[in-house]
């Protein structure tokens, strides 16, 4: 059975959930998003005055006010994903007394494409390298044509893409209202294992070993050798999990973006995302975005499969040695991501 169909079936069984996770409050208030008051509709909620590219329809028009009268199965699926995010945010805000507002510094993950009126919130370990390559093609004005010709390290150079925090507040609000906003998500624990494997088991990631590995070993490993404390290159997954659930870690500084929650990176309860793509249906969802942007006829999302990709089976193995207490605590950290993006509690978890 196709992943998209399974997702629809799961969504039809989901009830309203009241979440216990509270939002932090910001001292500095710069601007306020009314995303949660934004009508979520199957037709164009923006009216007919959307700012369009010359001689063409904007992605928002293509999404909310398609030329054909009948909505496709794909459009219905994405409406259900939007509804899931909205419902989860509303359930959470009902129990949370403080509304968090965003500042420009919260928007550094939102990549802007002026030419095609797109905003993409990138989430590490969810095909963000290839999506950044795509965004470089879209914003390069002819400089690039094949995304796979762009080296991976070049795609991650911040100067190659413009992010929303670089605009003035009026410009930010205009783009949030007028551009099509999208993100891609992944099963939270599969993404977490992928981050661990990439950053702590690869010998070339010495910067992560020095910055995080040494700290994790110092806090979580009894009788650590001096070499381990110095190198930080042999962090065990159990130690990584213990580090993540340690209250001291969360008080000290925000999580690194590779294991930060999607909820905290992209702020979907404050920013109304028009499309939520999934890693499990990556090619289909990505090409739908490109179709809406009007470039689908000549630009396709790369289809090659990585042989080293982290799978569900691999994730299950990594969690075998995690105690039920630590599994429960870790699930609480990522609970909003599970609920908001309709991921079931993994069958391998032993929650207390």
UniProtKB/TrEMBL annotation:
EC number(s) from the headed UniProt entry: 2.8.2.-
Subcellular location: Golgi apparatus membrane
UniProt keywords, alphabetically: Carbohydrate metabolism, Glycoprotein, Golgi apparatus, Membrane, Signal-anchor, Transferase, Transmembrane, Transmembrane helix
One Pfam entry name: Sulfotransfer_2
Major localisation: Golgi
InterPro entries assigned: Carb_sulfotrans_8-10, Sulfotransferase
Mitochondrion keyword on record: no
Coiled coil: none
Lipid bilayer topology: Single-pass type II membrane protein
This protein's GO CC annotations: Golgi membrane
Organism superkingdom: Eukaryota
BP term (GO), one: polysaccharide localization
GO MF entries: chondroitin 4-sulfotransferase activity; dermatan 4-sulfotransferase activity; N-acetylgalactosamine 4-sulfate 6-O-sulfotransferase activity
UniProt keyword annotation of Transmembrane present: yes
UniProt family annotation: Belongs to the sulfotransferase 2 family.
PANTHER family on file: CARBOHYDRATE SULFOTRANSFERASE, CARBOHYDRATE SULFOTRANSFERASE 11
Name of the featured protein: Carbohydrate sulfotransferase
Organism: Otolemur garnettii
